[in-house]
Amino acid sequence: MASSSTLPIHGSSKYDIFLSFRGKDTRKNFVDHLYHALQRQGIYTYKEDKKIMKGKRISDELIRSIEDSKFYLIVFSRNYASSSWCLDELVKIMECHNDKTTEHTAYPVFYDVTPTDVRHQRGDVRKAFAKHKNKETAGKWREALKEAADLAGWELKNTADGHEAKFIQEIVEQVSLELCSINCNFDEKLVGMEMRVNDLVSSLEIGIDDVRMIGIKGMGGGGKTTLARSVFDGISFQFEGASFVENVRETSSTSLSGLKSLQCQIVSDVSDDKDISIRGVHEGKSMMKRRMRGRKVLIVLDDVSHINQLEALAGECSWFKPGSRIIITTRDEKVLLAHKVTLIRDVNLLSNKEAICLFSRYAFGSEIPIKDYGELSEKVLRYAAGLPLTIKVLGSNLCGEDKPIWKDALERLKSIPLSETMKILELSYTVLEDDHKEIFLDVACIMKGWSKDKAIQALESCGFHAISGLRVLQQKSLITIDARGDQEYVRMHDHIEEMGRNIVRRSHPNMPEKHSRWWKNDEIEHILANDLSTEETRCVHFHIQKLDPYILIKCFGKMKALRFLSIVMKDCSRNLELNTFIPSFPDALQYLRWTNYPFRCFPKTCQANNLVTLEMPESKIVQLWEGGERKLLDKLRFLDLSYSKLKTLDLDLTPNLETLNLGNCCDLVELTDAISMMEHLKSLKVNGCLLLEKLPDDLCRLGCLEKLNLSSTNIKHLPDNIFMLKNLKHLKLDECKLLEKLPEDIGEVKCLKKLSLSSTKIKRLPDSICMLKHLRKLKLDDCESLEKLPEDIGELKCLECLDLSCTKIKHLPDSICSLKHLRDLKLYYCESLEKLPEDIGKLKCLEFLDLSFTEITHLPDSLCKLKYLSDLILNCCFSLEKLPEDLGELEYLRELHIKGICIDLPQSIHLLNGLCIYGSRWLLESFDFSSEIQPLEDEENFKGQDQYYKMLCYVEV
């Protein structure tokens, strides 16, 4: 891609601009200044040379130059019309301008004459043209002058108060803009760039008179430089000076004078002074401050890796004149944050459609794959995973090759990664601190896709500062944190994962037993089955397919440095004993998770002195230690024995537990009083412990407890002193069939955010529940004895989700309309509910409303004020007579469910673009819609064998 502010026009045009002028009038003054201004802006301009001006008629060479130019600037001066050369030139220009088969445009520039003078050959123009009046070509010349003068152009005396410098600047800016709009600023092989460029330019807000720095961050090879270059090429003409500084990281790190040379480049570029000399970085800063303050500049600093680079090249906003813009690309968000860059944009990888187009351009020279190569192309693109660099390299490498070569190349990629991609990606890894490298490799080999909380737990168990470590990886674009619902997940691009795994493999490429991390099932089973384990291994994660559990547990004893062990095995039908040998886990082990552990206990020989996490879900464990051994596990913080055969647990041996999961331990009868001594406990799960009938009296001494899950237990009541749990945030009591009431002081649990009482025998809620100012989620569905809510329910100012489905609620308190943050309101199967509050429209944040199987007769008109309502579910509301006439005001409504009922839709519904309506076919066909009606597959019918349908309404806007 060209580095100038405006790219040369693609196609047949050789020049951007052709300058037509009278040399004696303007060559050494106005035209000279105009020519150099165009050249500085990167506009390729033709200006005739004296040496080709021989004879009285323009040469063939000059004619070709006119034909090879896109735009023409005709500088009319007092003596322009005196030159037959200029007039012949003008005739040719106007012929090209009027040729509809080509794209040429002429612009007049009235230097020291007026348009009227030129149009009617008056004043000085008349005097200049006088010597031609008897020539046979005079008529043709007059017509050309008149035609040119009628075109839109620029007049010096009416522009910028006659200041030539400002006049020239305006001409250059407008011509540049025209060139940009035609050329689109994009290389032929760039895909998806226009939208990305427009978004970034919009963020720059170039018209605002301030200094703005904007960062573009993302992984290596993701298109940051291409995006910055495209923006630079498209907008630099709007600035008084511009500089694109490439490879800041590489240049500043390869030599002591690197930063100094970059300072020289910037000052030279923006000032058009090629003789810049800087003796040191400090002097360079001073010079930049002096030179930049007087010019509105655009600077791109590409691939910045350290704060000192920004301090030297764009130290403060005060260095620059208002209106200046500085764009910074980096892999490391931390650099931007340290420099107080608040406007930061992620570079988006290519979508599937964009990837296919880009790959096809490089591989086939077309927009789509050629015949019979579509499926192979899809496989290539699955490997490329949206990374532009990889797509380009693969497309170029496979161009012109036949299918056998393609297939062989794809097979090679499975074991040998693309070196060009890996080299660029690994730059982000090499600059990491040693502990952050270890965290990165753990994520790449094992923890990709884990929830953030689980990854932090595992990494902290192994002695790492996980929260800050993951943040560093995120800032360096090596991982992303993806939020889904209430959970966050650790994500990593496929190529970065591959790069990390390649780092682990390459030290011993043919000896996987010596790798620091094992994650491939077949390799691990081969190593363990052949007793090849070594002391180099730190982490193991795999699914057992065939290995005998006895062989498996014996092998781990040899891995003296093993700190992380995660195993998933098929459920073993028998309980295995440990009396045939003396197996052991290594004492270095800090994280142990074994799903379906087949033994009844842990071996005596296992010391577990360093164990921080012990997770044995769905195990055969009856007691923790073989022979009833008692061992103090004072480092243990996380214990999960859910779905095990455990009957009792010595909690006084685990004093530092933070999470305890005994969920669905069906043989567990009670929690010992020792649990109240666990002062660090934050999460306790005993859900599904069907024999558990009461809680220890001193449970409320757990001052750090944040999550308590008692669902599906036989708990009859909660301790009255539950209000002492000052940090409790989540309380789950679902399916507690014997629970009929809550403590009256439940409102004293000030931090409570989620309260779930589904399928309990709760008859009423204590009035104090309205004191829970932080409560966000209240689940009361299937509380069949619940008939009403507290009248002050509207005091729950933070409430976002309220589920009252399948209750005997007869009416909703008017105060419910004060729940300004309520997003979900579920009233499914509230058969006693006949109406909604008239002020329901005050629930400004409501997105989801389910009224199915209620006795609602009408919906309040205020419902149409629910601006963000996206789902309205009215299935089997047999008493409903009509919908509000203004339903079309619900501009965000995307789904309307009216299955099982017959009701007219208001005409205003035609205003809703892309609305899905679900109902009976005969009902949908009665509406005036042209959309296709599609049957719903696997839909649970509400009435006998009725089939329901979906209709998507497209409305032309």
TrEMBL record:
Keyword Ribonucleoprotein: no
Stored Pfam families: LRR_14, LRR_3, NB-ARC, TIR, WHD_ROQ1
Record-annotated TIR domain positions: 13-179
Keywords: Leucine-rich repeat, NAD, Plant defense, Repeat
Molecular function GO terms recorded: ADP binding
Keyword set includes Cell membrane: no
Matching PROSITE patterns: LRR (PS51450), TIR (PS50104)
Domain of life assignment: Eukaryota
GO BP of this protein: defense response; response to other organism; signal transduction
Name this polypeptide is given: TIR domain-containing protein
Species lineage: Eukaryota, Viridiplantae, Streptophyta, Embryophyta, Tracheophyta
